[in-house]
Amino acid sequence: MATAGAAGGGKTFSFKVVLLGEGCVGKTSLVLRYCENKFNDKHITTLQASFLTKKLNITGKRVNLAIWDTAGQERFHALGPIYYRDSNGAILVYDITDEDSFQKVKNWVKELRKMLGNEICLCIVGNKIDLDKDRHVSVEDAESYAESVGAKHYHTSAKLNKGIEELFLDLCKRMMETAQLEERAKGNGASQSASSRRGVQIVDDEPQAMPAGGCCSSG
Amino acid sequence: MPEKIAWINVPKDEEEKQSKPLSRLGSSLSAGLSSSPSKRFSISSLASISRQSLPLSLSSSPRRPKGSSLSSDYEDAQCHLALEEQTIETAIRRTQLSRQNALRSTIRDPHNPSNRTGGEVLEGPSQRLSDMSLSTDSSDSLDFSQPSAFLIPPLHDPSPPTVADFNIQLPLSLPPPHLRLSSINVDDDDDDDEEDEEEPIFGVSLESDHEPDQDQDQDLTMLPPCSSTRRRSSASAVVLQKALRGNLRKMSVVFNSLLTPEKRAVRKVRELSRDKGSYFGSLVQEYLSYMGEGAGTQELKENLSLYKARTPQEMGVADALTPDSVAIEKIRNKFQAMCKKYSPEKEVTILLRICKLIYTIMEDNSGRMYGADDFLPMLTYVLAQCDMPQLDNEILYMMELLDPSLLHGEGGYYLTSAYGAMSLIKNFKEDQAARVLSAETRDTLHQWHRRRTTQRSNYLRVALQELNSGCTAKTLQVRPYATVEDVCQLCARKFKVLDPESYGLFLQMEGSSQQLAPDTHPQKIKAELHSRPEAAPFLFVYRRVANSGTLSSATPNLNHLDTTPDPIDNLNHLSADLSEPSSEPGVGSDLGPPTQPPQQRLHL
């Protein structure tokens, strides 16, 4: 499905990104901020904030993002799989003032890795940094956890519009990278794969330890 | 209230499950046939299919009071024929006595139909014969003191008009006897059985319809030839059948010759759809068996009414405005309109309109934007309020046939949401608050995903490692049961290795590299690795076997891998009972639970 669709000369990437996280952590505000704020808000959707699209142009390549919001309440947890299946990326949002919400993120990470393996780029997002004085999840904890599971960590504030642009841009780049590597692998394979995808390095003769974590571990 | 619900819903279910998917399939097929998608063609075929095959469904459900407008000319034809066809009336009279009692007892039941069509009936018996033939409702609303001759025609009349209808594209004598039999059996399937007490009239009419249908109704033969025993045969129906058969035969010959090439093509497609051996046929058949398994319907109904009592707040809506009863009625009408559409794309368009309407109500001009946290609970609430069990199948239908590219867009999102909301309702239990999807839902979903993403899951990425030239990776198509030996052969071919005997397949992970034994299954290994809680990166490498001895060191580790209890087994062990109608051409029927394609498991 959703990886890269080559269209004529210029390539257009279509990515599906799923937003996960407990209710009230600000998933919706985050994505609304991103999709409504800058750029032209000419996204096709006339509906509200549950499903949003965004068109980007990254280093001359067109990217279509489809962002799938999910309901964070516990009773909807079981529906996760129908939303995240076939996703290229997942944004896992927690509220820095709410430790429980961070725990939820951990659960999601576990589930996603189990169900989708390393095929999916994970972003862990500590939202509401404007409330830093009430912070209950330490930066170090969060970042080291993210690293340990091959995810990247971001600090955002939907209220102040901080860190959101970077988050999505970064995610897009990573998904493009993944998609291109996949494409290359599918196509004529060949030389570039010495730096094989997902950070897996293969050097002849001496099988090396591969870096822990998946596509998202680098940088 | 409950009675009313039951009454209204049952015929729809019936229709949904048996006739509509079929006719719709038929129509979409016919649309797909014409190389340039001609709208006219698909529409007309659609109409004719439903007309000829659904004499009952056209009006048996109260929600189609205007069904007659669509088929007015049809009715006309029907009327003429019904009146001219002396034989039928004779036969009817003959059966009258034997049926009278039975019908009376069945008619006098609490399921009083909505009287929307009742008015027409009063005009005069002979004139309205055709009307009654179209509508089991109207026959219900007749004064029961009338001779039941008027009740019987509805049950049998559809046949001659069907023949007369020039839209008929199917040869009337076509279905081979064995197909007829099996298809007839299906119509009387367990669901029918269940509803019998509630819906005696419907049951009777269905049954008696089948008898003449044997001679002509092609649509029935689309039904899957799945097993179910013939329930009962009505003596009167047999009499009628005999009486009708001769005339119908003659007519069928005439009309057979009127078939156009397109219609023949449609016929061909239908035949194909019955052939389980073909890919297409297996898809269709699987879909039908999908729709056929209506076991959950009753539970769904119960849960719907349970859910109906809940407030949006209880379902998690924070502070949005809730649709009032007027809005719900409006939404229900839209859903009903949606159900009548045949194209999944059009249905999704209506679904989107409904969602927009819900948003508009929630927003209430406040300008606030609502995300899934609020929307999904509200959608669940609305679905429960609408109380339309048939939506469940409708949503499945859309998910099944919607173009894959659309599945990932807005339509796909809201369809997914509707599916999710419906699953929640279906699995709603007061005590467990739907913490987990029911096994059935998971399984359905799993099967669905497997069907829609068959190709994807059969890939394996293998890197070729050469001593001097670094690494080349290829994504190969590797079937779930392919052994390492198979993969090695494939690699030798793909990588153009000249001396394959000195190469082997290695699993490289966490700094170690192990050669895989020839009889292990790479896809299974991959799946096992993926399912580990801490998914470590790994890669399959095809390379020169360094020395002897590597092989033995590898084996124990992998044995361990293979026997690791699958952590997600609980997601799948249920699929055993349903995995039989697999549509995958490659994997086919040998899908057992232990050997299930591991990769596919993972992609729920």
TrEMBL record, chain A:
SMART domains: RAB, RAN, RAS, RHO
PROSITE patterns per the UniProt record, alphabetical: RAB, RAS, RHO
One term under GO cellular component: cleavage furrow
InterPro entries: P-loop_NTPase, Rab21, Small_GTP-bd, Small_GTPase
Matching Pfam families: Ras (PF00071)
Chief location category: other
Keywords: GTP-binding, Lipoprotein, Membrane, Nucleotide-binding, Prenylation, Protein transport, Transport
SUPFAM superfamilies (alphabetical): P-loop containing nucleoside triphosphate hydrolases
A Gene Ontology biological process term: protein transport
Region (Disordered): 183-219
Ranges of biased composition (kind: Polar residues): 189-198
Membrane topology: Lipid-anchor
Compartments where found: Cleavage furrow; Endoplasmic reticulum membrane
MF annotations from Gene Ontology: GTP binding; GTPase activity
PANTHER family for the chain: PTHR47978
Entry's family note: Belongs to the small GTPase superfamily. Rab family.
NCBIfam families per record: small_GTP
Protein name: Ras-related protein Rab-21
UniProtKB/TrEMBL annotation, chain B:
Residue ranges of domain VPS9 in the record: 294-434
Parts of the chain that traverse the membrane: none
Pfam families: RA, VPS9
Composition-biased stretches (Low complexity): 21-72, 129-142
The keyword Glycoprotein is assigned to this record: no
Region described as Disordered: spans on this chain: 1-75, 97-142, 177-231, 551-604
GO MF annotation: an example: small GTPase binding
Ubl conjugation as UniProt keyword: no
Composition skew (Polar residues), residue ranges: 551-562
GO biological process: regulation of sprouting angiogenesis; regulation of vascular endothelial growth factor receptor signaling pathway; signal transduction; vesicle-mediated transport
Highest taxon in the source lineage: Eukaryota
Main location: cytoplasm
Keywords associated with the record: Cytoplasm, GTPase activation, SH2 domain
Domain (Ras-associating): residue spans on this chain: 456-545
Subcellular location: Cytoplasm
Database matches in InterPro entries: RA_dom, VPS9, Vps9-like, VPS9_dom_sf
Compositionally skewed regions (Acidic residues) per UniProt: 186-200
Gene3D superfamilies referenced in this protein's UniProt entry, alphabetically: VPS9 domain
CC terms in the record's Gene Ontology section: cytosol; endocytic vesicle
Sequence similarity: Belongs to the RIN (Ras interaction/interference) family.
Name the record gives this protein: Ras and Rab interactor 2a
Organism: Kryptolebias marmoratus
